From TrEMBL:
The chain crosses the membrane at residues 187-204. GO terms for molecular function: DNA binding; transposase activity. It comes from Geodia barretti (Barrett's horny sponge). Pfam families: DDE_Tnp_1 (PF01609), DUF4096 (PF13340). One of its GO terms (biological process) is DNA transposition. Residues 94-199 form the Transposase IS4-like domain. It comes from the Eukaryota. Keywords: Membrane, Transmembrane, Transmembrane helix. Residues 3-73 form the Insertion element IS402-like domain. This is Uncharacterized protein y4sN.
Length: 205
């Protein structure tokens, strides 16, 4: 895998400007980081064609710490939101100990009040009347199959329901990056940086 010149030009304006005698251009550094992320190798194990490994490491470390990767990913997200019509939102959850977080409800309210009626795709764990009514109240069209024991089953968009696993598919793609999957990083900043980098690459494809 590699980032092409055309893909690079999409994010080049967001990356720090390189001035003077530059030893490694940003595109070369990005592909070096991509190699480390995919192969899970040590920085010192970078093939010579990518240039000095320490230069690559320092730039990745700097971009992770000063928010460059965050800004690139946010930029790509905004570009995608501008280009596409929000059609559906998938809902999933896991069991964790956490305090009540009203931000989730606020986000759903914002998404459901954008002048359209997007689908809210849920699996059968969310087929209860209360959940479906809440989805409708927030401006969504709930897409969830009824349990087979339902006395009054409803129709739902079966084609749209096939898209419910998009979140899981994203995680499977992230697991293709050995550096992330194996959690080699000792620093949280770099680990999160690699996740952001993988998401950026995924958005560019």
């Amino acid at each position: 895998m590699e980032i092409t010149e055309a893909q690079y030009q999409l994010i080049a304006p967001i990356l720090p400007v390189q001035r003077g005698n530059v030893s490694l251009p940003n595109l070369q550094v990005l592909n070096a980081i991509l190699y480390v992320a995919e192969q899970g190798c040590k920085w010192r194990g970078l093939p010579p064609r990518f240039g000095n490994w320490h230069t690559v490491y320092m730039r990745m470390n700097r971009w992770s710490k000063n928010g460059v990767l965050d800004r690139v990913f946010e930029y790509l997200q905004r570009e995608q939101i501008v280009r596409i019509k929000l059609e559906a939102v998938s809902m999933d959850s896991t069991i964790v100990k956490a305090h009540d977080a009203p931000e989730g409800r606020k986000l759903l309210t914002r998404l459901g009040s954008q002048g359209q009626k997007p689908f809210l795709i849920m699996d059968r764990a969310y087929e209860g009347n209360e959940t479906r009514q809440l989805a409708l109240a927030l401006g969504f069209t709930p897409v969830v199959p009824p349990l087979s024991t339902r006395v009054d089953p409803w129709e739902y968009d079966r084609e749209m329901y096939k898209r419910r696993n998009e979140i899981e598919r994203l995680f499977r793609r992230l697991k293709g990056f050995r550096r992330i999957f194996s959690r080699f990083e000792k620093l949280d900043t770099l680990f999160l940086g690699f996740i952001l980098f993988a998401l950026i690459f995924d958005a560019l494809r």
